[in-house]
Specification:
Helix 2 packs across helix 3 and helix 5 crosses helix 6. The chain starts with 6 loop residues before the first helix and ends with a strand. By secondary structure, it is an alpha/beta fold. The strands form two sheets. Strands 3-2-1-4 form a four-stranded mixed beta sheet, with helices on both faces. The protein has a four-stranded mixed beta sheet with strand order 5-6-7-8, with no helix packed on it. The chain is globular. It is built from eight helices and eight strands; from the N terminus they run H-E-E-E-H-H-E-E-H-H-E-H-E-H-H-E.
């Protein structure tokens, strides 16, 4: 998954749904909040310190030989761990952009592009269309692409950029609240407060998470 807003929450939602359907599921996201183990998850459980240290030790020669960055090294550790576990599905979040992201070594996949906006312009370009090109580069030869909600101009640009792909694009629609205890959805960075947060903290989030978790129709 690549994108500007919501790819982390979308990855988490996807992994949780796959797990709920009985599939063995791996998840790689960033950043972490308290501990680096949070980035590498199997069936809802963070990688253990013992497994992280063991795999890291085995990867040190490659990390030093190719002078891998922090994120590149973590990608290597995650992929080595997942190769041991042999999950049914692996949900992988890009770090920055897509074309040159270390996670883009994967070839056979179901590419997902969430909302695209201007981010990391110094590295990805000052134009939103150049940024879109960097993120769309994760698609490679895969025929089916899932696309999040974007502005009409960006959506049309993507359609033209992918004439031979089968695209599924989210329609705009009325958002439902991600918090079952509120009468209206969270918005504009607003967070559920008081009893709402205490009763369902995992469901209370800002506008991007509500947007990505809302019930919306998709159409080819």
């Amino acid at each position: 998954m690549a994108g500007t807003n919501g790819k982390g929450s979308t990855c988490r939602f996807t992994a949780d749904m796959l797990k709920a359907c009985g599939h063995k599921t791996a998840l790689f996201t960033s950043p972490h909040i308290l501990k680096v183990n949070e980035r590498i998850v199997s069936d809802g459980r963070d990688i253990s310190d013992a497994d992280f240290d063991r795999i890291f030790a085995g990867c040190v020669p490659l990390i030093e030989k190719y002078r891998l960055s922090y994120f590149e090294a973590l990608t290597l550790i995650a992929f080595m761990y997942f190769s041991e576990l042999k999950p049914d599905f692996s949900v992988i979040e890009t770090g920055m952009g897509g074309r040159f992201d270390s996670s883009n070594v994967l070839n056979v996949k179901l590419p997902v592009i969430t909302a695209i906006a201007k981010d990391h312009a110094a590295f990805l370009g000052n134009s939103i269309y150049r940024i879109a090109d960097e993120k769309l580069a994760i698609i490679k030869d895969n025929r089916t692409v899932m696309l999040g909600m974007n502005t009409p101009s960006v959506t049309e640009y993507i359609r033209k950029a992918l004439p031979d792909k089968k695209n599924y694009i989210h329609r705009r629609g009325k958002l439902r609240s991600a918090c079952p205890l509120r009468e209206k959805p969270c918005s504009g960075g607003e967070y559920c407060e008081g009893a709402h947060r205490e009763a369902a903290p995992e469901l209370c989030s800002g506008a991007s998470s509500v947007q990505n978790g809302a019930d919306r129709k998709i159409h080819p």
